Amino acid sequence: MGFANVCAAELLKFRTLLSNRITLLCALAGVAAVGLLMGSNIGPNGHLVQGAPGSQAVASPMQFVMYSMMILGVLSATNEARNGTFRITLSIAPWRRRVLTGKIVTLAAIALAVTIVGLLVAYGASLITASGTEYAPMSDGGAATILAFLGSVPLVTALGVAVGVLVRSTAGALSILLVWAFAGEGILAIVLPDNIDPYLPFMMVGAGPGILPEGPGPVLGLGIFALYVAIVVAVTFVVSERRDIS
């Protein structure tokens, strides 16, 4: 069973669950809704009541896609552990690294496709709500922040898969990722010096590069975040090779 067959099997697993398709549609609907609602936040002087200029008209709605794909990455791994389908796959393709790589690559490819659609939806909404203002999506260096989603969403999805494989518990893996992203980094941002907190993992992806006045920027930030993800994925491969699959 070659690598292409492994990826095809993973795609079939993903498509089989109706909940996956519903989650993706809800994420895209959320992108459109938030993108349009941001227009109601623009005052008569053409300025947002709150928020940073430029790409936020697209970047903020895209948070729905980013975190939805991270959650789907976790679920794709933990559901395998719970239902025992990982053992079935390994009975056909008895190479753990190939199977895990196929899962990560397949989910990342799905995330990339969804990101492209989401960006088009968010960009269209931003043209309706922010065109002609300083919050037009491509203003103030917004293109780099927006295009960085093409890398950050697949990476976040891969991170979700890796943590799901490591923890093997849906509640545990989601708690680790979401608590870290929304609470842990927020607390560290208060405690750490201002020149360090922009380098926290989730600060460097998503809307962060357009909001934080200091930091690596969207391109370098994406590269550093990729290094974080690579470390977690490498640990996952090592642990999964040595752990019983039952």
Which tags fit this structure?
mainly alpha, 73% helix
Question: Rg from C-alpha positions?
Answer: 19 Å
**N-to-C series of helices and strands:** HHHHHHHHHHH
Helix/strand structural class? mainly alpha
Q: What is the terminal separation in angstroms?
A: 22 Å
Name the shape in a single word: globular
Beta-strand portion reads under 5%
Summarize model confidence as the mean pLDDT.
79
Number of helices: 11
Report the helical percentage.
over 70%
pLDDT < 50 stretches = none
Describe the sheet with the most strands: none
Number of strands: 0
Could you explain how this protein is built, in words?
This protein has 246 residues and is an all-alpha fold. It has eleven helices and no strands. α2 (18-37) packs antiparallel against α4, α2 (18-37) packs parallel to α6 and α6 packs across α8 (149-167). The protein is globular. The model has no long low-confidence stretch (mean pLDDT 79).
